[in-house]
Design goal:
Elements (H helix, E strand, L loop, with lengths): L4 E4 H4 L1 E2 L9 E5 L4 E2 L2 E2 L3 E4 L7 E4 L5 E4 L9 E2 L8 E4 L2 E5 L4 H7 L3 H9 L11 H5 L2 E4 L2 H40 L17 E4 H4 L1 E3 L14 E5 L2 E6 L9 E4 L7 E3 L5 E2 L3 E5 L8 H10 L16 H5 L2 E4 L2 H39 L13
Parallel strand pairs: 3-10, 15-19
Antiparallel strand pairs: 1-12, 2-11, 3-6, 4-5, 7-10, 8-9, 8-11, 13-21, 14-20, 15-16, 17-18, 17-20
């Protein structure tokens, strides 16, 4: 590994180059604009309305590194593919390395580099590192030819990840669109003989299910156990006991209200959710009800002057539409099949992320060399 050298970031890259006037109109990147290397918010603003932190005028190939809460790793490589100039917040350090920007971008995501950054951070709630301290952190650098070769391998893997993400998002949108059409009556299923099913009937949620708020448990004891604990947004831990033997539909009733979940059997469901219990109703399939409630906007039920909440008496009055049992089963099976595809793509994506991390941890550190560079 004689061709690799350990150097300070500030010796190979320019940190916060500056010297350029902020344009009159530009795309602004703040700390909420980037998630996992992707630009998720595209705000166009004018200089006279811009926040004081809008200071980093980007050039193609610049990397912006999140210096506030850097453990989130929401960094971004700007490729210059915009019609307007792009300006980043001073919550990022602007890093300019012209030879191979993508290699530096990958190096900044290594665990060792992030750990070194965190060791220099100050502040507990919003830990931050200064740009000058960032410049002093060491990175391993091979020759430019090896940098380019490493980048080519990992970039191919990034392309694969993008394709999986795109397919996953397209499938989610497909399910959302089909659900809206099914539960609005635009799409109707037919029986096995090709005949129409009967019309759907209108009910109140409290007329067909037991709606109640269970007893919660202290966060201090949600640590260990064999049974999943469900809060408002899903599983929040494990516990040694369960309060519901069968799978249940829950609706978040505190904080982020209106989120619908479908629990595992033998789970503890906390008081942050209302339960729509159908155990005693043989005429409604739970998965069907789950999909119908998921397709609906339950935000209108939210009340409370302080903490947002949904109360049981209001939820019981919520109107639902129920088809015959055979049509319920067809709808539940149809949407469950799409969910299985979504779950498979999510697992594929997580597996691919781990493989990419392995590539980063080994190729970008020099632990494993590409064949053509092993003799250097």
């Amino acid at each position: 590994m004689t061709s690799w050298r350990k150097v300070k970031l500030g010796k190979v890259a320019e940190i916060n180059p500056g010297g350029n006037l902020i344009p009159n109109k530009f795309v602004y990147i703040d700390l909420g604009s980037v998630v996992s290397g992707r630009l998720v918010k595209n705000s166009i603003i004018y200089r006279d309305k811009a926040p004081s932190r809008a200071q980093r005028l980007l050039s193609s190939g610049d990397v912006i590194f999140q210096i506030v809460r850097p453990y989130q790793r929401n960094n971004f490589l700007f490729n210059g593919d915009t019609d307007l100039p792009v300006v980043a917040s001073t919550g990022y350090a602007q890093i300019r390395y012209k030879e191979c920007p993508l290699f530096i971008y990958y190096a900044l995501h290594l665990d060792g580099f992030v750990d070194a950054v965190l060791s220099k951070c100050t502040g507990s709630n919003y830990p931050a590192v200064t740009s000058s301290d960032l410049a002093e952190i060491y990175i391993n650098m091979p020759t430019i030819n090896e940098q380019l070769a490493i980048v080519e391998v990992i970039r191919d893997f990034d392309d694969y990840l993008d394709k999986v993400r795109a397919k996953l998002e397209a499938t989610r949108q497909l399910k959302k669109g089909l659900s809206q059409q099914i539960f609005s009556g635009q799409i109707r299923f037919k029986d096995d003989d090709g005949r129409d099913f009967p019309d759907w009937e209108s009910w109140r949620l409290g007329e067909v299910s037991d709606v109640y708020q269970p007893v919660t448990i202290s966060k201090d004891i949600i640590k260990e156990g064999d049974y999943s604990v469900y809060g408002a947004n899903g599983i929040i831990g494990k516990y040694t006991d369960y309060n519901h033997e069968y799978e249940q539909i829950t609706i978040a009733c505190r904080g982020t209200c209106g989120i619908v979940n479908f629990t595992k059997p033998k789970s503890w469901i906390t008081g942050n959710s209302m339960i729509i219990n159908l155990d005693n109703n043989r005429n409604i399939i739970k998965k069907f009800m789950y999909y119908e409630l998921t397709s609906q906007n339950l935000k209108y039920l939210i009340g409370g002057s302080g903490i947002p909440q949904i109360i049981g008496s209001d939820l019981k009055k919520h109107k639902i539409y129920i088809p015959s049992l055979p049509e319920q089963q067809k709808i539940a099976n149809f949407l469950s099949n799409i969910d299985e595809l979504i779950n498979s793509l999510e697992e594929l994506l997580e597996s691919a992320k781990l493989q990419k991390k392995w590539l980063l941890d080994n190729l970008v550190t020099g632990k494993i060399r590409l064949k053509e560079f092993r003799d250097e």
